[in-house]
Amino acid sequence: MEFDIIIVGGGPAGISAGIYAKRAGKNVAIIEKVVPGGQLNYISEINNYTGFTSISGVELAQRFYSHAKNNDIKFIFDEVKDVDFSNSLKVIKCRKGEYFAKAVIFALGSHSRELNIEGEEKFKGKGVSYCAVCDGNFFKDEDVAVVGSGDTAFSDASYLSGICKRVYLLTKEELKNVNYPLEILNKDNIEVIKGGISSRIEGEGEISKLIYIKDEKENALDVKGVFVAIGRQPSTQFLNGKLELTDKGFIVTHEQVKTSQAGVFACGDVCEGHLKQIVSAVGDGAVAGLEASKFVSKVKTLAGGEQD
Length: 308
Ligand SMILES: Cc1cc2nc3c(=O)[nH]c(=O)nc-3n(C[C@H](O)[C@H](O)[C@H](O)COP(=O)(O)OP(=O)(O)OC[C@H]3O[C@@H](n4cnc5c(N)ncnc54)[C@H](O)[C@@H]3O)c2cc1C
What we know:
Layout: E1 2-8, H1 12-23, E2 28-32, H2 57-70, E3 74-77, E4 80-84, E5 90-94, E6 98-106, E7 111-112, E8 128-129, H3 132-135, E9 143-147, H4 151-161, E10 166-171, H5 182-185, E11 190-194, E12 197-204, E13 206-214, E14 217-222, E15 225-228, E16 232-233, E17 264-266, H6 278-302
The protein binds flavin-adenine dinucleotide.
């Protein structure tokens, strides 16, 4: 199937890019591997997106999706595994099929980083979770651990303390002297273990223990769930050698949304240096949608096709 513009990723950046490109008169498809809305689906409550004093992530994701559908944007539910930019018609290779486009926008966002410790793989989806909002309810009245030292870890611990019996929060040694948010300090059922480095997850069928090292000694927490909140990284392995990437895998952009390849644009969290927020993803997406549309119009004009 051939399109003017293919957008890879149906999060806030991709959907915004789609709306702007479609309204510029282009034939647009969004390829999404999981669910429209991207990371929005993991946010319990959003208070900083202009126009909404408070809205749940899932509701905002649904609004974004219906806005795109109202603009007749085609959604293809598939995962992009490879690309070929060697011809002017770019090839997007997915699990289930191949698609062609004059311009491509990557709005791949990011996914949770993993601990890379023994037992993590074995208990993924069976006690190891990367989303407290999605999985917290499976651990009602149980003891759980949250591993992480940033805002997400703090808000996960706070959220889980309302559902679980006890929440252990394992944070980095360097955070020994920071002021923890009151939502953490004021909760009787949150115990902060500063400088506790998780080293292994144990259990038979379900998790029974998280082993961690502190002051060079091994300790065990009797927990049923381990929530990992140690940051996010982009999934751009398939773009290695095809686009300029940073050593962490973020796409390098010039003039805001242009990549190292003509006719290929990037927006949102997948880009190096951009603010990782909904409002900026949406703004970037608008610019990418318009820049990609301009590129397609130029290609059509040069080819002697219709002028738009
Ligand atoms: C727990 C949490 C809380 C947050 N709270 C806030 C907040 O309060 N306010 C705020 O402004 N921001 C918040 N954020 C950040 C915000 O959600 C992101 O900045 C925003 O979603 C980025 O949008 P994006 O479109 O760039 O990426 P994403 O939302 O990550 O969307 C990318 C999409 O691309 C898809 N994709 C990836 N690879 C492929 C592939 N190969 N093929 C097909 N599809 C693919 C993914 O499935 C995903 O749907 C939060 C994030 C998290 C995780």
